[in-house]
Specification:
Layout (H helix, E strand, L loop, with lengths): L1 E10 L2 E11 L4 E5 L6 H9 L6 E6 L2 E2 L5 H7 L1 E4 L11 H8 L6 H14 L1 H5 L10 H13 L5 E5 L7 H16 L3 E5 L3 H7 L2 E6 L2 E7 H6 L1 H7 L5
Parallel strand pairs: 3-8, 3-9, 6-7, 7-8
Antiparallel strand pairs: 1-2, 1-4, 4-5, 9-10
Helix pairs in contact: 3-6
Length: 236
Amino acid sequence: MLKIENLSVHYGGIHALQGIDLEVPEGKIVTLIGANGAGKSTTLNAIVGLARSSGGRVLYGGQEITGKPVKEIVAGGVVLVPEGRRVFPNLTVQENLSLGAYARTVKAEVEADRERVFGLFPRLLERRTQKAGTLSGGEQQMLAVGRALMSKPKVLMMDEPSLGLAPLVAKMIFDIIREINASGVTVLLVEQNAKAALEEADYGYVLETGRITLSGTGAELLADDRVRAAYLGEAQ
C-alpha cells in the first residue's frame, strides 16, 4: 500500500536518510524503531510531504506521491499524528476535531466520524467544549489521534504516541491503535518504546543513523539479540 524506495533526505550538510527502503502492506501495523536522531520522524515527514526528499520516491497505492503538496497527500488518505501532539491549544476539543476534517465536504459523514471518535475516546466527549491547551498530556494525545481520524485515513502514521505518558495511558493508546487497525486502517508507527511497538507490529524495521539495518516480523525482531541489547535493555 505504501512503499519507500531508496529515499534520501538532506538537512543542510546532514544526510538524515541515506537511501532507505521499506514497505507498509495494506491492513498491517508496521513499526520503525531506532535511537533518537536515527531518522524516524524524518521518514514520516518525508512520506507526508513535510520534509523534502533529495532522492528516491514514495509510492502510495502504486502511484508516486513524492513532492506532492501535503494537503493532497492527506486528502488521498495518508495522515500523520505528529510527535508532541501539536493540538491547537486555544481551540476547543470539538474545534480541533473539525480542523481534522477540513478537506471533507459531506457533512453527515463528518458528523458520523466525530461520533466514532467520541466513542473511541469518551474523555474527549466529556471535554468537547474545553480548550485543548487545558487538557492533560494523555488527553491531548487522544485528541491528536482523534483529529487524524477525522481526515478519514487509509494509512495512519503515528510519531511517538506514548511519549511522556503514564504507563496506563500509554497502554490505552496502544489498545486504541489496535482497534483502529482492526477497523481497516493501515498503521505505520514510530515509537521509542520498542518492546510495546514490536509486540503490536506485524512487521518492523530498525533505523540507525539514516539507514535500515534490520527488518523482520515483530516477533523476529523481539527475539533478535541485537535488538534486545540495543533497544530492550537486555544483555546479550
